[in-house]
Amino acid sequence: MIEVYMLRLDERKAAALYPVMLKYVSESKREAVRRFRRPIDAYRSLTGEILARLAICKRWQLSNNELSFCKNEFGKPLLDNATIDCEFNVSHSGDWVVCAFGDCPVGIDVELMKPQDLSIAERFFAPVEYEMLMSLAGSRQLTYFYQLWTLKESYIKAVGKGMSIPLDSFSFLIKEDGEVAASLEAGASAAYFMQTFADDDHALALCTFQQTEPIFKELDYEELESLLSMLQ
Q1: pLDDT tens, residue by residue, 57-115
Q2: Are 94 and 120 found together in one domain?
Q3: Phi-psi domain of 160 (left: phi exceeds 0; alpha: psi -120 through 50; beta: other)
């Protein structure tokens, strides 16, 4: 089963909860968070790890002090010395922080759909994707760009090899009904995709290697503060 926690950022509420959340992460994470120049970036990063810790503690009945994170050679965050099938992935952009978790590899990406120079698509997208993108006009073109981008990010994050997988070595077609057709690189494992929107301004995509309907749960700050007691 794949679950997704979602939190819409509120800068005022995040600032109030910031010192509390800092207590529940490692010293190295605290140092990393404090290096951000903009408070909102610190809130996003810290909240992402807190969502991951809450998800893991609740799903796998672990205590927070048992959790230690590491990264693989490509930079994917992992649970260190895990004796359980625990997979998670975090993303944050604009107003949203999201965390997907389950017992098989999972990747998630959320992106604020801000204006973008679409020439980047010619560099990174497969020719068939770029052709489809260029056939669209107006706001639909920008939306489709972010739909493709989040799908690609979710896939390389699920695989755990980051940008070592060329983004033009696999492609997606998003059909009118929202169904995602994927053409993956040679030798790739079967993967399953969902492309949706967190709201009108944020695209979101999920990739997993388990064919299952993900369960989404949107938290608010009152719920988040209440759940923090699990990490004590």
Answers
A1: 999 999 999 898 888 888 888 888 667 888 999 999 999 999 999 999 999 999 999 99
A2: no
A3: left
Residues 202 and 224 in one domain: no
- As to burial, measured by CB atoms within 10 angstroms (0-12 exposed, 13-18 middle, 19+ buried), residue 106 is buried
Residue pair 42/18 in contact (Cβ under 8 Å)? The answer is yes
CATH number of the domain to which 13 belongs: 3.90.470.20
Look at the chain and report how many structural domains it folds into. 2
Q: What is the DSSP letter of 186?
A: T
pLDDT in tens, 100-125: 999 999 999 999 999 999 999 999 99
Determine contact, residues 88/99, Cβ cutoff 8 Å. yes
Look up the pTM and report it.
0.94
Dihedral (C-alpha) 78, 36, 201, 174: value to the nearest 10 degrees?
-40
Q: Which domain holds residue 123?
A: 105-209
